[in-house]
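Lecture 7, part B: from sequences to assemblies.

Below are the input chains for today's worked example.
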Amino acid sequence: MTADQARRATLTLRATAHDAVRAALDRAVDTGALPDMPETRSVAIEVSRPAKPEHGDLASNLALKLARPLRMAPPAIATALATAMAELRGEDRGSAIASAEAASPGFLNLRFADAAIEAVIDRVRDEPAGWGRVGGLEAAGRHVNVEFVSANPTGPLTVGNARGAFVGDLLARVLEAGGQRVTREYYFNDSGTQVRNLGASILAVREGRDIPEDGYHGDYVADLAPELPKELATPRSGDEAEEQRAWAAGRWASDRIRQGIEASLAALGVRFDVWTNEGSLHADGWVERAVAKLREAGYLYEQDGATWFRSTAFGDDKDRVVIRSNGAPTYFASDIGYVIEKFSRGFDHLIYVWGADHHGTVARLRNAAEAMGLDKSAVEVILTGWVHFLRNGEELSMSKRAGTFIALDDLLAELGADAARWYFASRGANVNMDVDIELAKRQSSENPVYYAQYAHARIASILRKAVDTGLAPATSVAGSLAAEPEATLARVVARLPEVVEDSAAAQETQGITTYATELATAFHAFYRDARVVDPDERDRSAKRLALVDATRISLANALALLGISAPEAM
RNA sequence: GCCCCCGUAGCUCAGUGGACAGAGCGAGGCCGUCCUAAGGCCUGCGUCGGCGGUUCGAGUCCGUCCGGGGGCGCCA
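Predicted structure of the full complex, as structure tokens:
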């Protein structure tokens, strides 16, 4: 393998095509087929997958883009590019591009050489673990902090927390696949007034009194009360001592609930690297430091006894209070302390996954980062759309305080983690959606996730059958991809890295579910048309087994990227 | 009133400015000696919310209007 071929092996087929089009453009200019103008040298090369297979594996719109600056008709440019590419191919017998054709109204349609596809399929099986991971992104190598869920530990997670949990986890996974280092972080507050109220509610249940009006009424309060440690269960004399007891009971309950939250998330396949407590940001001086930074930069002022941040200097519609007139810092003060605390840990980029109801706080956070001399573009907020939960068409109230919520654990038990993951992964993070629990339960058995998983199980079955028959996959599929149905399936398998690259760049996962469905469809069609295990055709069987095994790896890796299992049997 | 998100098939949703707009579900029909029928094939399904604009080209970008949702606190 030459150095050039080795380099190609690490590129996606799309990147190879991109380079080939660039080379063809340079040659066309060098030979005088196209005029040498600034636009010819600076134009961005784009290749994309045509909607119709007969238009080739990839197409470039370069001729259409150059038509105006070069004052030439698009087909003439496309023809010049096709000619240049044919000349280059004549010099490089190993070219990955088998043909380049000009097509109206000015596309350059490219088709890959069978050998190039075959090399990719062999590589999938040589390095299955790395298949689908990419490193060619602009953002590759950066260290990202993704903070999500961040519900306060005053009650179990509800279905309302599901969106953030899945969106954040899926985002982290797709960024990792794109070559970025990711830290998953959970931010919570176990020292606010709500914790005292939680404690008072537990004491009330324990002592047979009515739960206070601003207390918590969920079943979990009643469940926790009997387990309250003895020293907290004993009433104390004096209002102040009782107040301290409520706080202590709240902290105890809060810790128990936090452990429950961690377990719920683990059941979803969501784990966190760092749990940060709001209180620690104050205790460790981060809030103080952030406020000092803003003051030094001249963005703080006093009014009505409070300290304000001049957010309007950065385009916000109003200034924001940082320190209340009673001397207590606001939640916003904690937020900006948290920003500098996060950057102090060496992150290049911060991503917050927040519900849409927090959109009003985005501008002030990013403005404050800028005011403190940080790079505003390194502080990013992803807002998740609203999930409206219904049961048999009726809206469900979701009050944690009133205890009328549906626990995330219950929903999961009904739907299953794989179906729930697919459901959220296949939709954009910011779209609103209605989820009817009863409908979702009924539809969970028809969830498209099973379609993809079934394809994987079918392949596993074929591979088992092969072992029983004494057949083994070939080391290489070389020479077998010229014909159908192999050609079509192999091309879908080969696309995974491009899908991952696009998904990581867009910070989305819908493309991956779409891909998994397409790959499963391509496999099912292949299964219909091609007998894989056939003792009378041992050589062909071996190559088909190799292709089918590569399909299995691609499918399993796409599912793994979404945290979804790939069963051996269904 | 101001700000943000959304509006694509009966339903749920995909759709990096490109070649006649796609999947799943739902509806109707067909496929069984054969590696898993949780499968395959066929049929029907659309003013891409409306109207302007930019562009060689707009579901995609801009403006405006109409729907739906959310936010506008010295709460978190």
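Note for the exam: The two ends of chain A are 42 Å apart (CA to CA). Keep this in mind when comparing with the next example.
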